Structure formats: structure tokens, C-alpha cells
């Protein structure tokens, strides 16, 4: 049996133990003198010599002072907090800041202090419990923006703001002095002042830290960060996430055809474009977005046909289990790119192993260099679940290699990280998790079967089980 020891955790525990051991033997006879707090420290042994005047909810503190042994009550932000009398001596008290403590970020009338009441009197120490750190999601701006126009900073945790500054790229730093913060501390609204550089960074400085976002008084070129599927099902909606999707004109697919603005759906926050492919591109390529700020091309390869190992039309087929389906627009899976492989089962019994398996015959392609390491390859595919899997999970086998299968697999979307129901999602499995091989030259001579073996390893009866797979591809995890 292997035992993993976290050294930092062990040292922290040892440090606390060394602090506490004297406490247990102390009789707390500090003669009732006036209590005094000299400083506050952390119980982290790496920072044992550091003192603090601020902390965060949940943090453990060491109060250092004199005549503390007869402590009866302790207050933080004027709220009584629990402490263990066994962790109290004449010179030290160990306690944790409650996670539920009301903070001065929400109620500025609360005193920023620690107060210890003893038989000899009261000791007060100035101490600030910080709110969560701020963050900025986006700037909500209607372009073109002029002096006096409204700008909204959309984010979170805008507590205890020190200042807001528009830091211009040409050297003009403009502090925003007139602004309002929403009741949920998630938005800051202000009017664009005169004298601001056309482009730069907007910085919000709070007691708990700072948050930054690029800004411009003109429309910036669109930015492409994520494509929910690089080989989406024809007719099924997918999305492109990024920024500055303002006055979007069109999305060009691989240089072959345009999807015009009327057929695009852009989020109100101008950071997501939802669209559908009307037809499959003839070759792999790049997506280009044209918007108010110009045109931007994706760095990610889109519709990589050369890596497809099974699409059940041109490449691959169903094996001894699984059926081929074609979307009709009215029943699941609604849309398919030609045909898809799937299975439908009713009343799946308890402890049911290898029912309704999906097994595909695959074709290995020549687009991948033979010396490509297996650790640099992934299997990517589109998956549609009509109902939640509940207790159903998969054993995944690739290339007929039963020496290394992936057990307990549940499909999740690359884009959301969740198992999505009632829609096509793009999924990925690292090839090294399902085969024992070194490089692609060894992969190409493997068997031709790729299977998802269903297991209901529970006493639960599943009324309906329905799953589909399409556009299976074996490809580098990073395409150069």
C-alpha cells in the first residue's frame, strides 16, 4: 500500500500542535491584568514570523498578546465568534475566521477589528476581513462610444473599491470618480469622461485585489477563444466563444461559404455566436468572423475530415452491435451528418453489464505522422444522449485492445465540461487512456473495433436509454 504525505500539510499540523501543546498544560492564570493584542499571525509554518492586519473568511489565526488567558468572548467585525478554550493561553489564542461572517464590504458600518473580552478588560486590534477578490467578465458598451456614453463593467465582487482607472496605451490615465455599483456588487456603471486614450486597460482596485480588462472607444477586431465543436453535426447548433462580436456581418466556413448575419445568433454580451452548418465543408480549414472591428481567423483547424476514422457514411461502419440512424428533425437525435451509430434500450435491468453496446468498425488514416506519440493523440467524437445516464457508465475499448480499457466513462462536453442532454456535444478521450502503444505506427496495425460497452452497475432500473455517436476522429490534441 502506498501512502502519500503532503509535506506542507504535515508541517502545518506540526506547527499547530507545537503551539497547542503548551496550551493544554497552561492554567491560564494571567493575574487578570489588562489584556493586550500585539499582533496577529498565521498558523502556516512558512509564514510564522509574518504579522497580518487583514485576512479572509475561513482562515486560521494566531492572536499574540498578553493577559489573554481569561478570554470570555471574542468578536470579529462586532460579531461574536467561536473559539476553543483549549487553544487559549496568557499570550496566544488560536481561532478561525467564520466563513459566514458578515463583512465590511457589504456593511461598511461594521468595525474592522478583533475584540477580546477577558476578566481583566478588553483588547482591540484593527483587523480587516477581506471580501472575495474582484473579477471582470466583460465591458458592456454600445459602439461607437463617445464622451458621456454609458459603460458597464460586468463582473463580480466589486466590494470596497479603492479606485477605478482607465489606463491608456498612450499614457493618459484617467481615474473614474463618478460611478455606481449594483446591489449584487456584480456591475459598475459610469459615463466615459473626456481625455481618455482610445485604447488601454480598465483597472478596478479593491481592498481585496484588482481586476483588469482591455478597453477601446472603438470596435476592436473579434477574438476567437473557443469553438464548441470542431466537427459539429450538420444542422445542429454549435457556438463560437470569444469577444467583440459587435455588428457581426458573417462567419466564413473554411473559405468555402459564408453564414450571413441573419442566420447567426449573437449573445447580448457580444461574446458568443450561435450558428448551424447548412452543409459539410469539402475540406478542413479555418473559421473567419467578420464584425464591426474587422475580420479574425481561428487558429484551430475546423472540420478536420482527414482525421475521421468513422462517420458511418464514407468511413467506418457499425460492427456486430449498434444500429445506424439518420436524423429526421422531429425525433432524437434530430440531426445527423448522414448516418450516426446508436442504440435504444427500454427498461434496463439492475446489474446489467454489456447491454446495448455501440461497436464501430474504424479506418486508420494517413494524416498523422507515424512517429507521433500516443500521448499526443486524442479520440474526439460527437455524442447525443436523449436521457440522463443515471447509473449507466461505459467501458471504452479501442483497436481491439482489451489489455487497457477505460472503465466508468461518462461522456462530457469539451465546451461545458458537463454531460449535456438532448443535444449533440463534442467529447474527447486521450488515446493513452484506452490503449497500450507508443506511437501511431503501432496504432495503425491494431484491430479495427472501437466500442462503448454499457454497464448499469446498480440495483436501479433505467426506464429508457438512448445514445448516438457520430464523426469519430483520431487526431493530435494540438494540430500544428
Walkthrough of the structure:
This protein is mainly beta. Helix content is 5%, strand content 44%. It contains 2 helices and 37 strands. The chain has helices at 7-24, 440-443, and strands at 36-42, 51-52, 54-55, 60-66, 73-76, 79-81, 92-96, 113-118, 121-126, 128-129, 135-141, 150-156, 161-168, 173-176, 180-181, 187-191, 199-206, 209-216, 223-227, 238-243, 250-253, 257-260, 265-266, 272-275, 287-291, 294-297, 308-310, 317-318, 323-325, 340-348, 352-361, 377-385, 392-398, 401-409, 424-430, 449-456, 462-476. Strands 27, 29, 30, 32, 35 and 37 form a 6-stranded antiparallel β-sheet that branches. A hairpin with a 2-residue loop joins strand 8 (113-118) and strand 9 (121-126). The longest helix has 18 residues, at 7-24. The protein is globular, with a radius of gyration of 30 Å. The model is unreliable at 1-28 (pLDDT under 50).
